[in-house]
Amino acid sequence: NNNNNNNNNNNNNKNSNENDRMLLRPEDSIQHQNNIGSNIMMALDDVVSSTANDPTRYEIATYRTLRWLDRCIAAHARPRTQNLFAIVQGGLDTSPRGLRNKCLAGFRARDARIPGYAIGGLAGGESKDEFWRVVDLCCRALPDDKPRYLMGVGYPLDLVVCTALGVDMYDCVYPTRTARFGVALVDPAVDDRGSMDNGGAGGAGGGTNKKGEGESTLRLKHRVYGNDSNVICSTCVCQACSNGIGRDCLHSMLKNGNPVAAALITHHNITYMLTLVSNMRNAILEDRFGDFARRFVLERFGCVQDVPTWVKDALEAAGISLLS
Questions:
Q1: What pLDDT does 205 receive?
Q2: What pairs with residue 73 in β-bridges?
Q3: d(Cα 42, Cα 196) in Å, to the nearest integer?
Q4: Which end of the chain is more exposed for a tag (fewer CB within 10 A), N or C?
């Protein structure tokens, strides 16, 4: 986390183990990532909460991010083997002369030295309408021949919508964190016992549609699964489903605090997400992503009238109509 001062030279972070601060410069960040040898490296940026009400702080962070990018590029020791991504900042300002566009303009001037781009500063509590408009602006401005990575976004619906807008890559703790609470990701209607909620106000055993996310989940701690011998999903190839470990078994382990349950549900959720992105990739390669996205959304909300406005607006911006 960055200090809110005007220190342009480094990032002052509080040490979580000691009551002091660590000094992290752009050069330090790059050196550590060079030592790790990761295929993709991230430039050190200055992140401000998307819900902050401080235009001056956003402006400072945007220009600091550009200056730090130059220092990261200069410090990068292995540009031929490690890809240094720049991170777009600028808050929620999508106006023509706004901070997002200023940051994007700065990146375009450096494009020859940037192999890929990340969209940062989102998924921090902003409205979904603000969220998709920033993603759309960035995708339209960034080059088509370089990967676009949306940071910290992992709800399945968000992935489908943002892929339609032009995003290529994602990362998020959602699939693994929600697994530790005993929640399994599934497609709508996967539970033939009617105990799954696909985002509405239905079955007691299912998930809820928080903020219109339209996510289908099984809350396996719920008592309804205590006598349910079905696997989470019969077509899933995860360790739990492929080995016949039923929901009742997972329920019992969760209730008794057995960590194996969290591990198995984590593997299931990761398998679910990998299947989703594989299906999206295949739909893109076969030039049928519009049909894929339309079916995905309607399966979760039932009819066009129930689809959140932000989803319809974002897909329309991507050239996908739910009425087709």
A1: 40
A2: none
A3: 39
A4: C
Pairing status of strand 217-219 against strand 183-185: antiparallel
Residues with Cβ < 8 Å from 248, sequence gap 6 or more?
225, 226, 227, 228, 229
Q: Which amino acid is at 65?
A: T
Q: What separation in angstroms does the CA of 90 have from each of 126, 168, 286?
A: 14, 21, 35
Of the candidates 128, 134, 135, 213, the residue with the CA atom closest to the CA atom of residue 178? 213
**What confidence score (pLDDT) does residue 20 get?**
78
**Phi, psi values for residue 171, rounded to 5°:** -150, 145
pLDDT tens digit sequence for 31-72: 999 999 999 999 999 999 999 999 999 999 999 999 999 999
- Mind giving me the DSSP string for 261-287? HHHHHHHHHHHHHHHHHHHHHHHHHTT
- Nearest CA-CA partner of 180 in 116, 247, 285, 258: 258
Residue with the bigger pLDDT between 47 and 12: it is: 47
d(CA 65, CA 24): 14
The rounded distance, in Å, linking the Cα atoms of 202 and 183 is 16
Both tokens of 199, joined, read: 């985002």
Q: Give CA–CA dist 205/8, Å, rounded.
A: 51
- CA–CA gap between residue 18 and residue 57 (Å, rounded): 27
Pairing of the two strands 183-185 and 21-24: unpaired
Mean pLDDT of 200-213: 38
Contact 132, 313 (CB under 8 A): yes
DSSP state of 120: -
- Annotate 167-195 with three-state secondary structure: CCEEECCHHHHHHHCCEEECCCCCCCCCC
